[in-house]
Design a protein that fits this description.
Blueprint lengths: L5 E4 L1 H14 L5 E5 L1 H5 L3 H10 L4 E4 L2 H9 L6 E3 L7 H9 L3 E4 L2 H14 L3 E8 L7 E2 L3 H13 L3 E7 L9 H22 L6 E5 L1 H6 L7 E4 L10 H7 L9 E6 L2 E5 L4 E2 L5 E2 L4 E6 L16 E4 L2 E6 L7 E4 L11 E8 L2 E3 L1 H8 L3 H6 L6 E4 L1
Parallel strand pairs: 1-21, 2-3, 2-10, 3-4, 4-5, 5-6, 6-7, 6-8, 8-9, 9-10
Antiparallel strand pairs: 1-11, 11-19, 12-15, 13-14, 15-18, 16-17, 16-19, 17-18, 19-20
The structure holds pyridoxal-5'-phosphate.
Pyridoxal-5'-phosphate binds next to helix 9 and strand 10.
Length: 380
């Protein structure tokens, strides 16, 4: 990948966000930082290391591949695989041997892990996942008989060590009433688990993502799972308004490139594929080496803006696979090689992932995670 494009991560901002969130947690509540999906585009291994350095108790990943990469990089912190992994012997055995904790949301997984761990003479560490109304992964908590059967089987499965019980919320950033109902159901599951496992057994219970963790200690249980807010982005605008100045998140990521060609064209000149833009007057057009392959969504065609020398420069024409054209008319002393900010601050101006999300009709999560992982990340 060309060095002309890079993603800059501010360690200080990441640390600030972790510390701020930690400040909202009740006494004794652990922090799990979610570094799934290349740490929301910020770089899996480096963010995993930094999160641990900045006091995160646990790291959460989406699959075995990410978990093993973190271990390979020497990260010894407790790791939880939050989502699907195939019941495939080689990789699951590696996970067990590396002391990686695995989600378990059905009976088949329990049996598979029991057999494999038994063969290794080890214990598979697991967190039992229940579905309290999100209708995603998890044993349906509505069915009390199945919940009891699942807990009972897990408790007596010899080569499986149950470390935790968890669930995931559906609408904590926007619907507090539904969230309270989900938390209530989860509390019931936790009570059943405590009964089945006995009072002596330590169980880490966890439910909250960024939004719920901020909203109330009621949702924090023993651990909160911090994702998007660790990276300085809000789960939703409503939540930002609701929390007010009490929580000050700082985006950790900036995305930059450099101008590779500049040209002056007369009025009426077409720009880019499909001739979707025609200059209205004489214009200076700069070509930058980023396109939809890099994660510049094609819906930004004739719509988004990048920053050059502290000025907003509209995207002209269609975003190409590897190139984009921007209007730099009126910017003085501009030369090839000048830095272009796709996301981040330049002078008094700032383009945010939220602004991108508004332009293309999505959420900041998608903007950040879709920045091509091959683009160089620099940690400053
Ligand atoms: C992604 C994820 C989170 C983090 O959610 P944020 O909204 O980014 O804080 C927490 N828990 C689970 C199970 C997840 O998949």
């Amino acid at each position: 990948m060309s060095d002309l494009t890079w993603v800059e991560i501010s360690k200080a901002n990441f640390q600030h966000n972790l510390t701020s969130f930690r400040g909202l947690l009740g006494p004794g509540v652990d922090l799990l930082t979610v570094v799934k999906s290349n740490a929301y585009g910020h770089g899996l291994v480096e963010m995993g290391k930094l999160a641990t350095e900045y006091g995160s108790d646990w790291l959460g990943v989406v699959n075995l591949d990410e978990a093993l990469k973190l271990r390979l990089a020497g990260i010894k912190a407790p790791l939880l695989v939050l989502s699907f992994y195939p019941l495939e012997e080689v990789s699951v055995k590696a996970a067990i041997e590396q002391g990686i904790s695995l989600v378990v949301y059905d009976f088949e997984q329990l049996e598979f892990l029991d057999k494999l761990a038994g063969e290794l003479g080890e214990k598979a560490r697991v967190h039992l996942k229940f579905d309290v109304g999100t209708t995603r992964l998890g044993v349906l908590a509505d069915d009390e008989v199945v919940v009891d059967e699942f807990l009972t089987l897990a408790a007596k499965t010899e080569n499986v060590e149950v470390e935790g019980v968890f669930s995931h919320l559906a609408a904590s950033e926007e619907d507090e009433e539904f969230t309270r109902a989900q938390a209530k159901k989860f509390r019931w599951v936790v009570a059943r688990a405590r009964e089945v496992f006995g009072g002596e057994k330590k169980l880490i219970t966890h439910l909250a993502c960024s939004a719920a963790g901020m909203l109330s200690e009621d949702f924090q249980f023993d651990m909160a799972r911090l994702g998007i807010a660790a990276y300085g982005l809000w789960p939703a605008e409503e939540l930002r308004e609701k929390m007010g100045p009490a929580v000050d998140l700082k985006p950790a990521l900036a995305w930059k490139t450099k101008i590779i060609q500049i040209k002056t064209v007369s009025a009426g000149t077409n720009v880019g594929y499909g001739c979707s833009y025609k200059t209205k007057s004489e214009a200076r057009i700069a070509v930058v080496p980023v396109g939809y392959w890099d994660g510049v969504d094609r819906h930004l065609s004739n719509c988004g803006e990048f920053l050059v020398k502290g000025r907003r420069c509209p995207i002209r024409g269609r975003v190409c696979m590897n190139l984009t054209m921007i209007d730099v008319t009126g910017i003085e002393n501009l030369e090839v090689g000048e830095t272009v900010t796709l996301i981040g601050k330049d002078g008094a101006e700032e383009v945010t992932a939220d602004e991108w999300a508004g332009w293309i009709g999505t959420i900041n999560y998608e903007v950040a995670t879709r920045i091509n992982p091959e683009i160089k990340r620099i940690y400053v």
